[in-house]
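Researcher: I'm preparing a figure for a lab meeting and need a structural model of a single chain. I don't have an experimental structure, so a prediction will have to do for now. The sequence is pasted below. Please return the structure as tokens so I can convert it later.
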Amino acid sequence: MKIDLEDIVKTLKEKNNFYILTHKSPDGDTLGSAFALCLALQKINKNVKVLCSDEIPERYDILYKNAKKQNFDPAFIISVDIADTQLLGDRLLCYSNTIDLCIDHHPSNKKYSKCWYIEEHSAANVEIIYKIIKMMGIDFDPYIATCIYTGISTDTGCFRNANTTSRSYKIAAEMIDNGADAFKINKIMFDTKSKAQLYLERICIDNMEFFCKDKCAVISLTDKQIKQSGASESDCEGLSSIPRKVDGVLVGIFIKETDPNVFKISVRTDELIDASKICSKFDGGGHKCAAGCTIPGSLPDVKEKIISAVCKTIGEENEWNNNNK
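Model: Understood. Here is the structure written out token by token.
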């Protein structure tokens, strides 16, 4: 059932013992949304716990280190920034059919919860959380402000992506005024890389391929390459943006093996091309300029499938078959 923000505020004030679910391979927006809401509710003496299937990368400790550790049985379960229960990850799949409220900004949201609030025009999901906290009359202390700024900054690519709006800048500025250290956050999120991440970047750049008359650039990593580098899941963050940085490329594709013969596809596009429509052909989704899906098969087969879909979308001949005869 679709509900509005007033209903959400009323529910949060009336109920207690909240579990907040984040998506697997967590990013700054799902974590920023979860911990901003967690910290806000804890300020009004609610019991709240944030759950994630995967280990939270150390870089995000600025978000969770101030949350109180509380033990209780959940009475109300909320998901944030999760378009589909498949994104919960193995450890949280047990909650798939028990989610009371979904707060999300993905157009591809499957409306899997008992109630949902979806705001597609929000650049980051945390912008919705900002409005909820504001409507509840809870002050934005430096810890909540850090969560909200981080969510906006990471989901807009440090305010460079096409989804960035004037509201994004306004909320970010307000969070800085409330104690968020923008310089520190941006340095951690965008200017600090591990040796393993640099190694993976080099592999991707050295093996980048071009299709559709150079309008589509593709990079890929196998599970073997990732393990040989000693990289963690968080070291793969940011790699999906590499192909779109090449002049003239309209569609960038990052293919990463997650299980034997199972590949996660990240698609980044020019604002005139809908990434979510490309990924929807493989039961994926996301935003207009950033979306994802999962395709099983060998790496050559997976490349052929996604490149074929891209070439059809942008009206260019599929060069994969010509290049691989």
